[in-house]
Amino acid sequence: MAPRIVILGAGINGLSSAVCVQQACPLAQVQLVAEHFSPDTTGDGSAGFWAPHLMSDKSADMVKRVSAVTYEHLVKLAYSPLAGLLKIQMLSGYCLYSKPADSSEEVPTWFEILESYRNLTEKEMLRFPKENNGVFYTTVTVDVTAYMAWLMKRFKELGGTIRQARIEKIEEIAGDCDILINCSALSSRYLFNDKEIKPVRGQVWKIRAPWIKHFYIFDDHVLEHPYILPGVDFVTVGGNAQEGSWKTQPDPDEARRIWDKAVERLPPLQYATPLRSWAGLRPWRENPRLESDTIDVQGRNIKVIHNYGHGGSGVTMHWGCALEVTAMVLETLGTDQEQIKLLVSRL
Ligand SMILES: Cc1cc2nc3c(=O)[nH]c(=O)nc-3n(C[C@H](O)[C@H](O)[C@H](O)COP(=O)(O)OP(=O)(O)OC[C@H]3O[C@@H](n4cnc5c(N)ncnc54)[C@H](O)[C@@H]3O)c2cc1C
User: What are the boundaries of the signal sequence (predicted)?
Assistant: First the structure.
């Protein structure tokens, strides 16, 4: 009988896992179950900017490993004929610091993944009289809604099915599957009794400012620092990070504060056209959970593969995580290691 695989959660992590698993296991029946689909997931409101952000040092190696795979995947798409459809582009810009560089501060190791990264010259710093030092690098950015529409089309063409439902207890779906892939992000708190996952609320502006062609990130070591991240159709301006807040509505006072701080650091923003303000919950966990487990559901052992807790870096990490999920699924189905390597390398 064809293996039955249910993926719970259709955010960027659930959807990319669904595509990879269905492609690597064409005979499996893969169903994506979720309460919300794009354009109503967290990634849809994110900036779609590749850079590990708001992650614990404890998970640095894992974050770097999966982020490197995702970077390669997105850059390949940025140089492919699909770039326009998916609204993926290479983007260069500035990380600026108002205080003098502390020689004890280490450069994050994920900078090694990038193709270009350098300190700003004295001449460049003259453009930023309020800042003290900075770096310039090139990364990749994606319009997550356009990208997720393409992933969803791919999933359906591969034979995957979808079901819209809010799941209150894991028993509601576990009985229907041989493998359950958990990408339910913050709901893992009650569905899997995981008290380590918590929300870190973020609020941003989406604005029209086509003259902004670089990204600007100010004092990124400070929690509520300003950032300006242009995409293809609009610019995302942030931001804040409110640990433990479950509020998904944007707050008008917060919006004004975010705007004023960003304009103060980057005056050319002044005459931009605001489009909307948006708030979302980063599913934060000190160690993002990417592992398999077995749970007992009404006397039946169910294999569960967890893929959640990506915090402020879910877009940055998604493809690397989806490939590791796929390898775990193939292993559970008894595929040998050589074949797993081959199948995953084709995704
Ligand atoms: C302001 C802001 C800016 C950001 N910018 C970036 C950025 O530039 N780059 C970056 O890498 N990351 C960024 N992030 C982080 C990124 O958006 C998240 O890490 C990522 O979107 C999480 O994706 P996910 O698929 O794990 O979870 P989610 O998108 O939260 O999806 C969870 C899914 O599970 C489903 N679900 C949950 N509970 C249930 C249930 N009980 N029953 C049925 N379905 C359920 C939901 O309906 C949904 O489909 C940003 C986040 C915020 C808030």
Answer: 1-18
81-87-88-92 Cα dihedral, nearest 10 degrees? 120
Does the CB atom of residue 316 touch ligand 1 within 6 A? yes
Residues 197, 204 contacting (CB under 8 angstroms):
no
- DSSP secondary structure string, 179-214? EEEE--GGGHHHHS--TT-EEEEEEEEEEE-TT--S
Looking at the CA of residue 187, tell me the nearest atom of ligand 1: 38
Best mutation site among 87, 184, 240 for ligand 1, i.e. most ligand atoms within 8 A of its Cβ? 184
State yes or no: pLDDT of 79 exceeds 80: yes
Percent of the chain having pLDDT more than 90? 86
Of 234, 334, 239, 244, the residue nearest 283 (C-alpha): 244
Q: Is residue 103 predicted with pLDDT exceeding 60? A: no
pLDDT on residue 195: 95
